[in-house]
Amino acid sequence: MPRIADRVLQLGTETALDVLVKARALEQRGRRVIHLEVGEPDFPTPQHIVEAGVRALRDGHTRYGAPAGLPELREAIHPGAPDRVVVAPGAKPLIFFGILATLAPGDEALVPDPGFPIYASMVRFCGGVPVPLDLESPAITPRTRLVIVNSPCNPTGEVVSEEHLRGLAALAEKNDLWVISDEIYRRIIYGPEPRSIAALIPDRTIVVDGFSKCYAMTGWRLGYGVFPPALAPHAVRLVINSNTCTAAFVQRAGLAALRGPQDAVAAMVAEFRRRRDAIVSALERVEGVRCKSPDGAFYAFPDVRALPLPAGALADRLLEEEGVAVLDGAGFGPRGAGHLRFSFAASLEDLREAADRFARLVSRL
Ligand SMILES: Cc1ncc(COP(=O)(O)O)c(C=O)c1O
């Protein structure tokens, strides 16, 4: 067999997708499984957005379009400076393009830990070295080139404080670093609206955002990056060399999402808040479990280190014995070890049932 290129051997994965496969196999054997593993809203895409997409298809928006995205959509995303905007099929490709455009082999990138596993995977793929980001004292070396911030964070739901953002911005200036600010959960927030580091250092920051989470559009595949002017043309080249453009009818649906009523977003966030309060208090009642209330996103990340079973084994037994699919925190980096991730993008009844089943398992340990 011909040799496989080393770079693909560097790629990691998302454990959510592996657990989903296991859970589906159990379901095929007739078990009912409560799915708290995958990070996607359980709400349907708001109707006016669906209608706009269908209308665009009927109107013939089915051809190649501008690689950087539909001009009206780019203007709606970043009024006054649409040239900075690059649209892509989801937020993920923009994380990839941002890393490809900024990191040379051997460069170090500070990545959130625990954090979205794709950051470290893509850094390694690009020949870089992921280094856990400690907001109190970031480990800057002469090889550091990039810092990745994710606020609110997957998996912890934490929002990076204004003070830490200022500290990171100053470090980036001093050490000549790029910043990728993944703000995909920006609008799913339970306190004051978080500030973006882009407001402090716009010419060093790539903002990654998209429609998947806040408009319940995961399957449409629509995201965008707001790039510093020096990087935007390179990101467009990456689009031209990979996906050519993003489906025009999908972008028209995105335009309707931004321009249309926002009450569906507000309703989803209000429902997420109810679910957050329910799951956090239910988990806190389980002996040996501590769970902070997340500031944003839709994940609870309880600390289970006081239980007599490691988190990975606990997640396995919770699925096998109680039919509840959650993730081992270790899949989000070394500092995620000893935690579980419960997505609360599920109904209140399912969340209550899942917490009861978890408590039942813990009582048997
Ligand atoms: C932090 C973070 N960034 C990006 C993404 C990917 O978003 P998209 O589905 O738009 O590619 C996710 C999805 O889980 C995420 O949690």
Radius of gyration: 21 Å
Percentage of residues assigned to helices: 25-40%
Give, in order, the helices and strands.
HHEHHEHEHEEHEEEHHHEHEEEH
Spatial order of strands in the largest sheet = 2-8-7-6-5-3-4
Number of helices: 12
CATH class of the largest domain: Alpha Beta
Mean pLDDT over all positions: 97
Structure description:
- The chain is of the alpha/beta class and 365 residues long.
- The chain folds into two domains: 6-32 and 263-364, Aspartate Aminotransferase, domain 1, CATH 3.90.1150.10; 49-259, Type I PLP-dependent aspartate aminotransferase-like (Major domain) (Aspartate Aminotransferase, domain 2, 3-Layer(aba) Sandwich), CATH 3.40.640.
- Helix content is 40%, strand content 13%.
- It is built from twelve helices and twelve strands.
- It has helices at 6-9, 15-28, 47-58, 71-77, 92-102, 117-125, 162-175, 232-242, 248-259, 263-284, 311-322, 348-364, and strands at 34-35, 85-88, 108-112, 129-133, 144-150, 178-182, 205-210, 223-226, 299-300, 324-325, 327-328, 340-343.
- Strands 2-8-7-6-5-3-4 form a seven-stranded mixed sheet, sandwiched between helices.
- It is globular and about 60 Å long.
- It starts with 5 loop residues before the first helix and ends with a helix.
- The mean pLDDT is 97.
- The structure holds pyridoxal-5'-phosphate.
- The site of pyridoxal-5'-phosphate has 13 residues, from loops.
